[in-house]
Amino acid sequence: MSTDDSPGGPNLDYRPHVTLDEIPQEGQKLLLEYSGLTYEELLPHILDIRDRAFKISPYPCVGQVRFLGNRWPSMPYLEQSFLPRLRDGATLLDVGCGFGQDIRFLTFEYGVDSSQLFATDIATGLMDLGYDLFRDRDRIEATFFTADLLDPGNSLTFNRLKGTFDLIQASQFFHCWDWDDQVTVAKNVATLSYGPGSQISGTQVGSKNAGTYAILKSCAVSGAHYRHSEESWKRFWKQVGDETDTEWDVEYHEIYSQAVEASRTAWWAKNDPGMTMFWYSATRI
Fold it and tell me: Where are the alpha helices (DSSP H) in 111-257?
């Protein structure tokens, strides 16, 4: 596995040495109890999938093995609206789903019927490797489909599913682009919402000093992305609404955690003292 692809030396997106202690306990439990792996199989299996996936999609979350944490408990909207609505039969779409780990956690930890769940990513290979990672190709009923949400015109499944979803999960997603492309992507995502009451929620990198910042091309193809403040995020959804003839009630909440503080030392955060993470919900009115 090459580790010298990033500017200036070793690939910061790839960690060659990983121990089982560094894999989140909830991820280990998922693979042991849902996927049926033995304890001895865990680390070799995870690293094999990681290496195969990194050749397809060299994202930091893949190379650094950050795809087995259960982020649902940290999202207030899960208990406030997502789970009650899913228990009433709502449908959910996870955009930018990667391996589809959030879908598996919903099924395993929260008992959601996987037939209510849909997921999409631009990387078909990652979704396919998700079946290998979780060993559930023959039993999960969730629908996975490929779509480039910057330009989804060729995705027949995307076009068929317009106006379908009650709930849309978009975490660590919009910040992959600059403002204009984020607007385009959000407009496409909005067309998938069912109507008033539909909710688009997630987490992402933001900044108290909203603006465009440099980032590795493995995170944003252009090498730069837009980080939102509360003011810019609400203004962003106003523009999305104006251009799609929809209206959105928007929540924005900063996330305070050790992980956020630790990330301030990363090279991409050093030029932005206002860098933060936030969770949001945009509910269609």
Answer: 124-134, 156-160, 179-190, 230-244
